[in-house]
Specification:
Blueprint lengths: L2 H36 L4 H14 L9 E6 L1 H7 L6 H12 L5 E5 L10 H7 L5 E5 L20 E3 L12 E7 L4 E3 L1 H11 L5 E3 L7 E3 L2 E3 L17 E4 L10 E4 H5 L12 E6 L7 E3 L11 E3 H17 L6 E2 L2 H21 L3 H24 L2 E2 L3 H33 L5 H9 L1 H4 L8 E12 L2 H6 L3 H21 L3 E6 L2 E6 L8 H30 L8 E16 L4 E6 L1 H11 L9 E6 H7 L3 E10 L6 E10 L26 H13 L1
Parallel strand pairs: 1-11, 1-12, 2-3, 2-12, 3-4, 15-16, 20-22
Antiparallel strand pairs: 5-6, 5-10, 7-8, 8-9, 13-14, 17-19, 17-20, 18-19, 20-21, 22-24, 23-24
Helix pairs in contact: 1-9, 1-11, 4-5, 6-8, 9-11, 15-16, 16-18
Length: 678
């Protein structure tokens, strides 16, 4: 298999489980979030975010087409009553009409006489330029009728739709009973104003039941518009587009009008709205701006109607577009995309700090996009996709933590504590494509095997009680294990007084230099074992033990590695002819023990370590159980190491060369006879 194919197999082993986990998590999280959204669970959050985005929109200047005449607290004190008398109201309307406004809207109930001046008020109310109000209420008993003798075409209801949290976010155009349809106060004023500009209401070309006024098509809100869910969509409603935070239009007091202090230019050709602005009137409403207001959290009803009126006029003239919304399907897809994005991010990014920073950036991107869309009159939900994002991230992180725990248990179960820190770290970093279904899948790779055994262990064991023997053996094996770990090997198994260590697993080697390095580590490890054994022998002499000798066999070649066993018991298996060859090298010619630790390697290992170590050739030999002969070499020491310094801990560096065994040919000739006899 080519290196490219091996890399692809490794990547595929990691990508496929990741895609599966991300896909399942994203679908599950998106389904959960959408389900909660459908029952209105996210509506309070979405409306809070909506209010925040309203406050971030650029404010427009006061509408020059509207003038508000507010009845202030000062007016009430001057008049000596909570509401102006019919006479004062009639006088104010007459003064305004004399200055040629286009329309006058009276946002005050006058179904009950406020003496004196009833006849005078009824007289001015006959003006075709005057629009009055009625209040529909919740029931027929709550209804407040308009002033008497005013034609229905000049009456609009002043009911304001309020959300459950008390904030006005919607603009009600029409309300209907079984027998009658009512226009809102602001809509009546807008239609009358626009008629002089040749604009009249008509059905939309796309739908007869949808109102078009000038350039604007007023699509009504539905149950699931924007962040709303299960909206009370009775009547014909649109989203209220606030023109500005406070001063929607120029405002004067009733006293200014009665004393004729208002310039004609502020009245001529405008819509004049008359209403109470005094806080004591209780005609006050919370708006999306209220959470940010310190002094005045609620706005007078006449200003709310001015906002609605300004919205109608601006939309019809094409100055400010009406809000649009995505369909349910689009919003569901939007939520899924963010759940998928969050899950993917959590799968790919493992550093907690970077993951937190990236997650914050992801949230900023979502908010920034939605705010940009909102400023162009498109309400794109934020809360539900944000929750889906972080819920998906949390789920994937939890899954990965659980998976990591299971994988860690599996790796430790298979490999135990018998690895170096470097290998343990490499294993853990590559665990995703190493582990499949809780197992290490079988894979073919090139590794270097190292077998050890104690010479004459049976005789040693006969001279020691079992308890002492166990302690002594553990001391020996602990020292050998430490050297193997320091040289980046893995102990595959203990064989009583011996062991099998492997260099080059479980990560496959993709380059020849990596195989060379594994072989170098194995031979260096064997030399380090020799030094440790010499140190141990010195200590054992003090307690009356004879010198212990050991044999090492090293072979480099192809093996198959992976999990062996069943569900209840598994171990990390290393299988192949190369394993047998290393074992046979260790046990061949047992009586030929030339030093305390005899290290034999084959030509297959020598070719990876040439010019690094001094070796002597034992010639072409037949190993027990092998049909073919192999070249055997004994490792003496590091190449160039002084003979009188056998225990030097620091080997000199060297590079591989094909001439290493050729340099030893005279030594081989001198020993040929002994080898032949053996």
């Amino acid at each position: 298999m080519s290196q490219l194919a091996k890399l692809w197999e490794q990547q595929k082993a990691q990508i496929i489980p990741g895609l599966r986990a991300i896909g399942i998590t994203s679908l599950a999280v998106a389904g959960l979030v959408i389900g909660v959204k459908q029952v209105g669970g996210w509506q309070p959050l979405e409306l809070r975010i909506y209010d925040w985005m309203v406050r971030q929109r650029p404010e427009a200047p006061p509408d020059p087409r509207i003038l508000i005449v507010g009845i202030t607290e000062s007016d009430i004190r001057d008049l000596g009553r909570v509401t102006p008398s019919d006479a004062d109201l009639a006088e104010a309307i007459a003064i305004l009409e004399a200055k040629n406004p286009r329309l006058i809207g009276l946002d005050m109930h006058r179904d009950v006489p406020q003496a004196p001046g009833r006849d005078a008020l009824l007289q001015v109310l006959r003006s075709p330029r005057l629009i009055t109000i009625t209040n529909l209420g919740e029931t027929e008993l709550d209804r407040i009728p308009p002033p008497p003798n005013v034609s229905p075409e000049r009456v609009g209801f002043n009911d304001v739709p309020v959300d459950q949290d008390g904030i006005v976010r919607r603009n009600l155009l029409f309300a209907s009973t079984e027998t009658e349809t009512f226009y809102s106060f602001a809509l009546r004023l807008a239609i009358a104003y626009l008629e002089e500009d040749g604009i009249s209401p008509q059905p939309s070309p796309d739908a007869e039941d949808v109102l078009q006024l000038g350039q604007a098509v007023f699509h009504p809100l539905t149950l699931h518009s924007g962040g709303y869910e299960r909206l009370d969509d009775r009547g014909y409603q649109i989203l209220l587009d606030y023109r500005t935070r406070r001063q929607v239009a120029h405002t004067v007091s009733l006293h200014d009008v009665l004393t004729d202090q208002v310039p004609d230019s502020l009245i001529r050709d405008r819509i004049v709205l008359i209403g109470t602005t005094a806080p004591s009137s209780k005609d006050l409403f919370f708006t999306p701006f209220s959470p940010a207001e310190v002094e005045v959290a609620r706005r007078p009803g006449v200003e709310i109607h001015a906002q609605m009126l300004s919205q109608f006029l601006s939309a019809a003239m094409g100055d400010r577009p009406l809000f649009t919304f995505w369909s349910n399907t689009q919003e569901w897809l939007w939520i899924f995309v963010w759940a998928l994005t969050g899950g993917t991010l959590a799968w790919l990014v493992r550093n907690p700090i970077f993951l937190g920073v990236t997650g914050a950036g992801l949230l900023g991107t979502l908010v920034g996009f939605s705010l940009t869309m909102f400023n162009t009159a498109h309400w794109v939900i934020v809360g539900a996709p944000a929750i889906a994002t972080f819920l998906s991230m949390g789920t994937v992180i939890t899954y990965r933590a659980q998976q990591a725990q299971q994988q860690q248990k599996m790796v430790m179960k298979l490999l135990g504590q018998n690895t170096s820190p470097e290998i343990a770290n490499a294993l853990w970093q590559s665990r995703d494509h190493l582990l499949e279904s809780g197992k290490l899948p079988g894979q073919r790779l090139v590794a270097t095997m190292l077998f050890t055994d104690i010479k004459g262990f049976s005789r040693i064991s006969e001279k020691m009680p079992p308890e002492e023997l166990l302690l002594w053996l553990n001391e020996y094996l602990a020292a050998m294990t430490e050297e193997i770990q320091q040289h980046q090997g893995i102990i595959n198994k203990f064989t009583g007084d011996g062991l099998l260590a492997v260099f080059g697993v479980p990560m496959p080697r993709l380059e020849a230099r990596e195989v060379d390095q594994d072989a170098h580590h194995a031979v260096s490890c064997a030399l380090a074992m020799r030094r440790r054994l010499q140190e141990l022998n010195k200590g054992w002499k003090t307690i009356g033990l004879h010198d212990v000798q050991m044999r090492v066999g090293i072979f480099t070649g192809p093996v198959v590695v992976g999990s062996l066993g069943g569900r209840d018991r598994m171990e990390y298996g290393v299988i192949g002819n190369s394993v047998n060859s290393a074992s046979r090298l260790e046990s061949c010619m047992k009586d030929r023990q030339v030093d305390s630790c005899r290290i034999l390697i084959a030509q297959e290992t020598l070719q990876h370590i040439q010019n690094d170590f001094e070796v002597e050739s034992w010639g072409l030999m037949e190993l027990r159980g092998k049909d073919q002969h192999i070249h055997v070499y004994r490792v003496i020491d590091y190449l160039g190491m002084p003979k009188d310094v056998p225990d030097s801990p620091t080997p000199p560096n060297g590079t591989a060369s094909s001439d290493a065994h050729q340099a030893l040919e005279p030594e081989e000739d001198r020993r040929s006879e002994a080898i032949a006899d053996a």
